[in-house]
Amino acid sequence: MTATALVLMEEGEPSEQAAFFARGWGDGTVHSVGVDAIKPYAPDAIAAILQRAADDLKAVAVLAAGTDRGNDVMARLAARTGLPFAANIVAADPADAIEVTRQRWGGSLLENAILISDRPLVTVAPYAVKAGNWPGPIAVDVKRYIAELDPRDMVVQVKEHIDPPGGGVSLAEAKVVVSGGRGVGSKEGFAIIEELAGLLGGRVGCSRVVTSAGWRPHTDQVGQTGTKISPDIYIACGISGATQHMAGCKGAKRILAINADAEAPIMSLADYAVVGDLKEVVPAISAEIRKNK
Amino acid sequence: MNPIAAGVLTIVMIAAVALFGRRAELIYRLIRKGKPVARFDDIAGRARAEAVVVIGQSKLLQRMVPGLMHAAIFWGFIALLPTIFIAMIGIVDQHATLPWLGRQGWYALLVDVFAAVVLAGVITAFVIRKVQRPRRFAGSHMREADLILALIAGIVISLFLWHASQIALGLNEYPAAWAPISSLVAQGLHHSWTPYLERGAVWAHVLLILGFLVYLPYSKHLHIFLAAVNVFFGRTRARGRLEPINFEAPMDADVRFGAATAADLTWKQVLDTVSCTECGRCQDVCPAFNTGKELSPKLLIMGLRDQLLSGATAPLVPNAVTDNVVWDCVTCGACVRECPVGIEHIDHIVDLRRNLVMVESRFPDEAATMLRDVDRAGNPWGKPQSDRAHWADGLGVRVLDAGEPAPDVLFWVGCAPSFDERAKQAAISTAKLLKEAAVDFAILGPLESCTGDPARRMGDEYTFQKQAKQNVSTLNEAKVKKIVTTCPHCFNTIGNEYADFGGRYEVVHHTEFLAELVREGKLKTLAGDRTITYHDSCYLARHNDVRDAPRELAAAAGRAVEMPRNRERTFCCGAGGARMWMEERRGRPINEERVREAAGTGAETLAVACPFCTVMLDDGVRTTGAKLQVIDLATLLSEAVERRRARDSAVSTTDG
Amino acid sequence: MRVLVCVKRVPFTGGKMVLTADSMALETRHLGFTISPHEECGVEEAVRLIEANGGESVVLTLGPPEAAEQLRDAMALGIDRAIHLQTDGQEWDAQATSSAIAEAVRADESASGPFDLIVFGNESADAGGYQVGLRVAYALGRPCATGLKGVKVEGLTVRCEQDVGGGRDVYALPLPAIVTVKEGLNLPRYPSVPGRMRAARKPVATSNPARPESQLQLIRLTVPGGSGRQTKLLGTGPSAAPAVVGMLREIGVA
């Protein structure tokens, strides 16, 4: 009898983290099904495949990364099977009644809950777990499942892809993000932010206050209801660090906060801090970078 | 007695009065059709305003030359009023005059002197308009003014010529010696044609006056009649209070909030627009106009007047007034204060805003977040109310619980000093000083919610009233009697506007309260060597007449110097009218303008008494690089108290 | 056209989490409430769809009696009527919520005809379960696309646009369909006072469904500790620039 956990794999670090997390379930064997099993993307079909595979493997649990796609597919799996689904967990204690710790409010609050289910369905919160070294999950051959798909499961599928205007890397994928908040003061004030982002080959982001004021489009917004980013470095200028904003940049490997107020929440949540007026500090950084170019 | 002359005069008079009456009736009906507003309280105060502003020409006399010029013409008109009747009698009967008055030497002297004064006034007016050409006339109808001045000149010149020719012909009923100027002119009038001159002059005089009468209601000179009326109906008390809307009144399907069309204006607003003389004094002091914005209070009133008189039913915004003009206003009240005919421009702006915000939802996007935050979070920045007392951590300040009765003094902190890093300092200093003076006070902490002032000034009366009712309920439950606040906007709203919602408290600004503590000796101070210039907040100095107490504190702290625009003529920091939450997209920044003025005094300390002034002026200092430190008066007082304590302890140790 | 939008009453926390003494809920004493942000855009979209196509819009919530405030807010923007599945204030998990909503939808549709489109928020601001819209879709047997930033009804289909890493993915679903949307879909209008007054008189159908047993049972809530990051102060003012650039060079970015 295998006590395998089944993981939905997408490209990217969060998926690897989820697979690593899955090792804690059952006897530690982990199988995986790729999101790209159906191209470009048909979530009901993938949920159907997962359901069949889980039954065939007698999976102990089904996991995925708490990404948009991960949550989408897992919720459909939960709906088709009538099983409970806990999204964005950060910890789990697999026992008879499984206790999970999951995120509320984008991670600003944690909930401990009992999941009453024979086959727990969970997604793992991105960047909540560190993936260590291990050989990786065993891929399931999905060919026969695809052949037996119900056409009704193909109704919801991606028909078309629209490329982003102006090309380049999106905010969600950018390796460097430089953000401005209320402290920038105006639409024109973002010029210095754009300058620094440009010098570092990164993207410009902003807080919700900025999009509400109409200084930047919503596509630039970083936060719980905006884009969740995971850059190598996130430079937050004039952003106080409200939890809804921090929820969007938790995935950043490093955070540098520049703020005139030494007491602003972000100043103790970041990796690096500079206390000062961003209108002076940001151009100074840009000038320093140019100096040695 | 000349029956033909009498007949012609009668016909002409009837015609003139009819023409005048028709137009006057139209204007009267427009005013009567205006929406109701209560302006019948404080008769004593209103009478006083009449005496000082109208009879005393107080607002006009702030500018010496134009003021004297106008006073000359105005007082001249009053003095010369009986000469109209004397002239009419004189047309009918060359030998008759007004009983008693027409024979008085002193009256003849009065007439001569005032006629000359009026003429001098008219000449001065022409010199101002044609030679000096002040900016305040930009946009005014200059030709209309020229015509009026010419008519007035014609009236007094014809009067002189008539009197002079009367004297030359010996027809004067008054002693000629008492009319020196007319007598002088009479010496050159001993000619054969003098009798014709005499008849011609008196007819010209009366016809010009009747022509003037007819022209009056078609021109801005209507203010001769209406100014006195408009001043009478202006606010005398609680000038910072806006008229509330009754949302509970039964509404018909066609709901009106604020002013969408001319039919929505109140009778006072209609009266305002037809009283305008296009003098431009309001424009001259408007911070928006003077920093390159579209708003000119004068052009605003003229635009509304023109639409009103044309009978057009189109929406006022954007047809009479553009959206930009409506949002440029900082509600500082400089225009209202300057206006010699008592126009209250802020009421017009706020009513236009009320319609735009509450009915059409058409206003600067960035302010929507503020309005939603006031409604949902209880403060304009959407910060957590549970953090509201954080500024007081470690100060030992008592925070009231729900229902707990308040001590003698409730310290109403305000949203800005509670949450803004720069504005907090004023609250901290005030709390420390109150403790030092052993005042029994407490704060409401999270129970304190935004007074709603920014929502009300934006025109969102609905959100304002929700906040007002909530706060009044909290304050009344705690049985609050006396409130001290650091924010002039809270001061104005709670003190002047909450009474409409059942909240009656004694409200004092922190500078007033602290100044009294100093006077009573409960706080002892020692002035330092800072040169301090104090920036009067609009909502203190102008809307509420608090000007001296802050100065007492400045003087206690250092050496005080005044800015050119000070006290009730202060220049706004730019944050009022909810503009703190709107982008300044056109022209130059208002705050920088004021910072430059402050820097020009040579002071290195810019003292403030308002959290918004603190933020705006500090921003202005940063962007202009001025060598100024923006500090609240409470903090300066705190320094002075420390200084005194240090000196006293140094003295006592050397004594010991 | 008939559109249903589902909303949830959530506290407006200002970013700060304060728990009740028993750690089972947020302390809401000093908090205002609002419709969850994604759903506010859903309400605006529903209003726009009916403005463009004619028909009827309905707003539904499962929540305590106070949630009527959110229903009135939605109707102030232009929604025609409301359905209030009233609870006693206790939390309902996602499965329970979904089955109650599906039940209410079936009841309303049998009385007034099918909804062409049902709009949900992608996830609620508080619980963030990411599943209610999808469960309702499966219960009703309708196609559902999630996390949408663009919704356009074109005849008998709805064109759905979803933000992905680089650009947008597009779905075309046959009506009747269900969509879950994200903030950024549109900019919700500010409610007018006449709208609020009309909303006060619009009909609300209230019922009190029984709460089924939960399969995801809350034990307690906790506020997580710091980010786990130790903040290093690189300097004050522009003079910190060299230290910053040094750090950026170290991580290979500058």
The portion of residues forming beta strands of chain A comes to 15-25%
- Structural class of chain C, please? alpha/beta
Helical content of chain C, roughly?
25-40%
Number of domains of chain A: 2
Query: What's the CATH class of chain C, please?
Result: Alpha Beta
Report the sheet with the most strands of chain C, covering strand number, pairing sense and barrel closure: 9 strands, mixed
CATH class of the largest domain in chain A: Alpha Beta
Coarse shape of chain C:
globular
Q: Count of DSSP E strands of chain C?
A: 13
The fraction of residues in strands of chain C falls at 25-35%
Radius of gyration of chain A: 21 Å
Q: What does this protein look like?
A:
Chain A has helices spanning 13-22, 43-57, 68-81, 143-147, 191-199, 208-212, 243-249, 278-291, and strands spanning 5-9, 30-34, 61-65, 85-93, 98-104, 109-115, 121-124, 138-139, 160-162, 176-180, 203-206, 233-237, 254-259, 272-275. With 293 residues, chain A is α/β, with parallel strands linked by helices. Chain A has an 8-stranded mixed sheet with strand order 6-5-4-7-3-1-2-8, with helices on both faces. Chain B is mainly alpha-helical and 656 residues long. Chain B has 4 domains: 3-218, Fumarate Reductase Cytochrome B subunit (Up-down Bundle); 262-363, Fumarate Reductase Iron-sulfur Protein, Chain B, domain 2; 374-518, 3-Layer(aba) Sandwich (Rossmann fold); 525-644, Rossmann fold. Chain B is built from 27 helices and 8 strands. Chain B is elongated, with a radius of gyration of 30 Å. The model of chain B has no long low-confidence stretch (mean pLDDT 93). Chain C is of the alpha/beta class. Chain C has a single domain, classed as HUPs (Rossmann fold), CATH 3.40.50. Chain C has helices at residues 37-53, 68-77, 94-112, 132-140, 193-201, 241-250, and strands at 2-7, 9-12, 32-35, 56-63, 81-86, 117-121, 144-154, 157-164, 167-174, 177-181, 204-207, 216-222, 232-236. Chains in contact: A-B, A-C, B-C. The interface between A and C is large, with 96 and 81 residues.
